From TrEMBL:
Keywords: Cell membrane, Membrane, Transmembrane, Transmembrane helix
Keyword Ribosomal protein applies: no
Protein's recorded name: Amino acid transporter
Source organism of the structure: Afipia massiliensis
InterPro entries according to UniProt: AA/rel_permease1, APC_superfamily
GO (cellular component) term, any one: plasma membrane
Length: 473
């Protein structure tokens, strides 16, 4: 597989091919961004963050928000400069022009979708167990997670039509659950219940003092901030992306960051950090403690709905990415087969589902799966921040957002720093990410050999099929 020189070959579709319908105004775009960020991360990992840092559980979310915000500025420059639906793969290919690097970035995004969906499946099972008093064992939660993922695969195979209206409804449900937590916390504080002083207390007895536990918790909290990068794939469907994207994306990050801080403060005020860190349903504990008369099954249902949709969207994204890479001759052609009746990529769906089954069975725990998602995305974000600087030498003939040069520099440094073992990141996350990417590299070389033996030359990458979106939180 030869490297492809950077050129102008990556252009919009020919004039004869219809373009995407520009239907999204600023308010619908804002709801899309907020809905993408909200989800599994805050519902499932708040307790694990508290377990590492103590009462200042809000602090890692603030730091994760800052890192995401700096990287968002890089995405803003790139999406207004190249307003096409391909995301990180497009920016990587334009910056470096090498098929293999583009493939690795796209495959890492695909893997992050699978790890995110696996996190959601585990959270779904845990919330079902707690909310409905079923008291599943760890093995039972794993089995429910596998069954849930099988249902997701079946829905994926049948075909799912998504719309902006459906996303709006989902966002309202997810937001409702978090607002319930905030209101319960505020009510309890106003009634003199709970312990507000906890919000400034660090965990005692840590080996790394204050700084390193916070950094370690930030690598986990970052999972709650992913999703904003997925909005760049809606660029071709926005009415005026150059004008609307900067304000709307920053507003969406600001809204979700504020919600996360308020949820964290409410949670730690009502539940001690050592208790909040037990199990995989931290926010259910908050509802039980702050509003014991509130029907816990209602909140459990909201949580299950939120994480279930995250899993479905992520598996849809992952299977379509595998399908797209197969069609571009960078993965084996069998993965690009489409079912004759359903018109869905059934082999790609099966492949990504098997990977998810393996993660749920052999990794299992929510922190490891969520942390792996954050690790993969931080690597992608590092490349995107560097791509901004490289692409400064590629002028375009229209006005676009230009971020201060210092921000992509800081973004690359911050994201690269948070991927390192010095952060206290569990080694299992590197192992899982390495195995997943290793599978991709192996498939890449198998495809190279198959292509060469068949005399097939890979066409120029069609990044609208290869780019895909990031994981939905």
């Amino acid at each position: 597989m030869t490297d492809v020189p950077l050129s102008d070959r990556i252009e919009p579709a020919p004039a004869a091919e219809p373009s995407l319908h520009r239907v999204m105004g600023p308010w619908l775009l804002l709801l899309f961004i907020v809905g993408d960020i909200l989800g599994t991360g805050i519902y499932a990992l708040t307790g694990q963050v508290a377990k590492q840092v103590g009462g200042v559980v809000w602090l890692p979310f603030v730091i994760a928000f800052i890192v995401a915000l700096v990287t968002a500025f890089s995405y803003l420059e790139l999406v207004t400069k190249y307003p096409k639906a391909a995301g990180a793969a497009l920016y990587t290919h334009k910056a470096f022009g090498i098929h293999f690097i583009t493939f690795i970035v796209a495959f890492a995004v695909m893997c992050s979708g699978i790890t995110s969906a696996s996190t959601a499946s585990r959270a779904f099972a845990a919330n079902m167990s707690s909310a409905f008093g079923l008291n599943f064992s760890s093995a039972g939660i794993t089995l429910i997670g596998l069954a849930f993922m099988a249902v997701v695969a079946a829905v994926n195979f049948r075909g799912v039509g998504e719309s902006v209206k459906a996303n709006v409804a989902l966002t309202c449900v997810e937001l409702t659950g978090l607002l319930i937590i905030i209101f319960i916390g505020l009510w309890a504080i106003g009634a003199g219940e709970g312990d507000v002083s906890r919000v400034m207390q660090f965990r005692e007895g840590g080996d790394g003092g204050i700084v390193w536990p916070v950094i370690a918790a930030t690598t986990l909290a970052f999972f709650a901030m992913v999703g904003f990068e997925d909005s760049v794939n809606m660029a071709e469907e926005c009415k005026d992306p150059t004008r609307h994207f900067p304000k709307v994306l920053l507003a969406g990050l600001g809204i979700t960051g504020t919600i996360y801080v308020l949820v964290s403060i409410s949670a730690i005020t009502l539940v001690a950090p050592e208790q909040l860190g037990e199990g995989e349903t931290p926010l259910l504990q908050v509802v039980q403690k702050g509003a014991p008369n509130f029907p816990i099954w209602i909140f459990g249902f909201i949580t299950m709905f939120a994480v279930a949709n995250s899993a479905l969207i992520n598996m849809l994204m992952a299977s379509r990415l595998v399908y797209g890479m197969s069609r571009e001759h960078v993965l084996p052609p069998a993965l690009g087969r489409v079912h004759k009746k359903r018109r869905t990529p059934y082999v790609a769906i099966g492949f990504t589902t098997l990977l998810a089954f393996a993660l749920i069975t052999f990794v299992g725990e929510v922190p490891a799966l969520g942390g792996t998602t954050a690790l993969l995305l931080l690597c992608v974000f590092t490349v995107v921040n560097v791509a901004v600087l490289v692409l400064r030498r590629d002028p375009v003939d229209h006005r676009h957002f230009r971020t201060p040069t210092i921000l992509p520099v800081l973004g690359a440094i911050f994201c690269a720093f948070l991927t390192g073992p010095w952060t206290g990141r569990d080694f299992v996350q590197y192992r899982v990410a390495g195995v997943l990417l290793g599978v991709g590299v192996l498939l890449w070389f198998v495809t190279v050999l198959v292509n060469r033996s068949a005399g097939v030359k890979p066409a120029d990458l069609d990044l609208r099929t290869l780019g895909g979106g990031g994981p939905v939180n």
